[in-house]
């Protein structure tokens, strides 16, 4: 199993796997490809794909943020998805562990965080990460 950075060649696979997360938001594959290219060229996010023998199994978007008080950076996991053909095999936990290894190699990284209201995913996150008493508030802006 390997964790690798997504490339432009992965755009259609990423578009397809995100289907279950983007409802009811609707946009075309061409619109997605334009934005996807922006993400890949920017330094604020990374899309990582878990694969085995050239078969993509899952993906996660990592968003980097500054933590001046710790002289370092943190990452938030977003859009964490295991492909429906590969679920119930422990790959969610594997993906989180691979992400932790990937970002820990940078000694300036201080924190990995995920926010979720997905009841199915909470036990996985609780097993792989430490639960905190942080409360999250959000408001969606400029909806599609």
Describe how the helices and strands are arranged.
Elements (H helix, E strand, L loop, with lengths): L1 E4 L5 H7 L1 H4 L6 H13 L3 E8 L2 E13 L4 E11 L8 H14 L4 E6 L7 H7 L16
Structural summary, described in words:
Helix content is 31%, strand content 29%. The chain has one domain: Gcn5-related N-acetyltransferase (GNAT) (Aminopeptidase, 3-Layer(aba) Sandwich). The model has no long low-confidence stretch (mean pLDDT 92). The longest helix is centred in the last third of the chain and has 14 residues, at 91-104. The protein is an alpha+beta fold and 144 residues long. The chain has helices spanning 11-17, 19-22, 29-41, 91-104, 122-128; strands spanning 2-5, 45-52, 55-67, 72-82, 109-114. It is globular.
What structural keywords apply?
144 residues; Aminopeptidase; 29% strand; 5-stranded mixed beta sheet
